[in-house]
Amino acid sequence: SELRVNTLKDASGNNSIATSFVAGGSAKAWVEFNGTGTVAINDSLNISGIVDDSTGLYNLNFTNNMSNATFASTGAAGERADNGGNRSFGLRAKSTGGQNCRGFRDGVAADDMAEMCFHTMGDLA
């Protein structure tokens, strides 16, 4: 079945929002994964899998492709404990089918991270 509406409101009839805003402003893919040892997805949406290419380098594969490769992505890297130093997440090559990313320790050395988070906004194919 199909539900067609232009505007959504809360149960009290307040706080309306256009469905086009909801569809266009929602994350189309996200993942939280452990990037150390055997890479493991802890939770995700529209991520079919992750390939561990080398130290700190991961390929994230979308379950449903994006409509083009100009989608916007962000990410974060960290550890489950405070071990000092800075952790960062670098975005690399992307395609309609996925995104390549890298974890960094202290902004210089590529490194596997215990907590990697990624999300993307854009249009699905």
Q: What characteristics describe this protein?
A:
mainly beta; 4-stranded antiparallel beta sheet; elongated; 5% helix; 50% strand; 5-stranded antiparallel beta sheet; 11 strands; single chain; 125 residues
Helix/strand layout:
Elements: E1 7-8, E2 17-18, H1 19-24, E3 29-34, E4 40-45, E5 47-54, E6 57-62, E7 72-78, E8 87-95, E9 98-105, E10 109-110, E11 115-121
Antiparallel strand pairs: 1-2, 3-4, 3-11, 5-6, 6-9, 7-11, 8-9, 9-10
Architecture overview:
The protein has about 120 residues and is mainly beta. Helices cover about 5% and strands about 50% of the residues. It has 1 helix and 11 strands, in the order E-E-H-E-E-E-E-E-E-E-E-E. It has one helix spanning about 20-25; strands at about 5-10, 15-20, 30-35, 40-45, 45-55, 55-60, 70-80, 85-95, 100-105, 110, 115-120. The strands form 3 sheets. Strands 5, 6, 8, 9 and 10 form a 5-stranded antiparallel sheet that branches. Strands 4-3-11-7 form a 4-stranded antiparallel sheet, with no helix packed on it. A two-stranded antiparallel ribbon has the order 1-2. Strand 9 and strand 10 form a beta hairpin. It is elongated and about 50 Å long.
